[in-house]
Design goal:
Radius of gyration: 24 Å
Distance between the termini: 94 Å
Shape: elongated
Helix content: 10-25%
CATH architecture of the largest domain: Sandwich
CATH topology of the largest domain: Immunoglobulin-like
Strand order of the largest sheet: 1-2-7-6
Length: 147
Amino acid sequence: MMLTRYIGPMLHDTFDHRVDDLFDDAVRAVGGFMSPRHIPWDVYEKDDWLWVEAGVPGLTGKDVEVKVEDGVLTMSIPHQPEDKGDGLTYFVRELGVDAVTRSMRLPAYLEVDKATATCKDGILSIGFPKRVEAMARHIPIEDKLAV
């Protein structure tokens, strides 16, 4: 069995087909929106913590490396072995084959030494508590009567 690429009715011309391939290759090369090599994540604040939740389907905490260096959080998923030992003949392999890394600068008001991390059901959750001086405080207002 051989898989072939579908060429729609507008792409019968060789030039159009080459331009389409050139665009696809360029977008993939710069890690654009069509690239499957990406760790999706949500970053949000809840209570006095900053949370990073990353989608790592099919992986466990042992499969992902998380580190903070010079205020930059980096998540890495190393290269996975090519052979899954499942006896299948793959025509396209894009799931978990290449190494993937994603980084972001963390705000300075976090206590990175007290971070926590868990991995459950394909979601890696990393929590960073805020420093005490960065937490919201209630300021009482005094009512003074005009004399």
